[in-house]
Amino acid sequence: MPKTGERMAGGASGWATASRLLVPVQRRLADGFGELCAYAAMYEPVGTVDHFSLAYEWANYRYASAWINSSKNRTRAAEILDPLLVETGWFRILLPSLQLVTTERIPIAIRPLAESTLRRLHLGDDERVIRQRRAWYKLWQRGELTLVGLRQMAPLIAEAVTSSSPLP
């Protein structure tokens, strides 16, 4: 029988213990993802451990913004495109709207899954994610963030500003 405070669930002491045990995992996961949300592809200082499917194993963990992780709440893994499978050029940011859209580079067979992911996780044009993108974009526009810094903090926005997309 576990001692008080060592339980993984049930009561405040159980949750405190569970949270304390997750901190090293969360830190390693954040480091592994370069502190970028696996879904939004932007810097996330206080991300959460996302269990992509129900298995509790390292290969199943993703680093995610809490609100995006919560958006997955009632969604099966089969209804979301695994961010670890996404290849360069599958998604792009439109300027100046900062909306995230799919591209023709996504294989036709999984394009509906990619569209579903944008919709279900509110990644395309939800105000919460647009506000984040806008903050990074404005820092870059004002010269307060270099292109190198933008690539590190919001790589899809950096890609958009360096592509043929018109600047506002």
Notes on the protein architecture:
- Helix content is 40%, strand content 10%.
- By secondary structure, it is mainly alpha-helical.
- It starts with 10 loop residues before the first helix and ends in a 6-residue tail after the last helix.
- Residues 1-15 have low confidence and may be disordered.
User: How does the helix and strand content classify structurally?
Assistant: mainly alpha
The gross shape turns out to be globular
% residues in beta strands: 5-15%
Helix coverage percent of residues?
A: 40-55%
Sheet with most strands: strand arrangement: 1-2
Average pLDDT confidence is 84
Give the tally of β-strands: 4
Unreliable parts: 1-15
Radius of gyration: 18 Å
Tell me the series of helices and strands, N- to C-terminal.
Answer: HEEHEEHHHH
Strand count, sense and closure of the main sheet?
A: 2 strands, antiparallel
Q: Identify the quaternary structure here.
A: single chain
Report how far apart the termini are: 63 Å
State the gist of this model.
This protein is mostly helical and 168 residues long. It has helices at residues 11-32, 66-71, 111-120, 127-141, 147-153, 155-162, and strands at residues 48-51, 61-64, 91-94, 99-102. The chain contains 6 helices and 4 strands; from the N terminus they run H-E-E-H-E-E-H-H-H-H.
What key attributes describe this structure?
globular; mainly alpha; two-stranded antiparallel sheet; 6 helices; about 170 residues
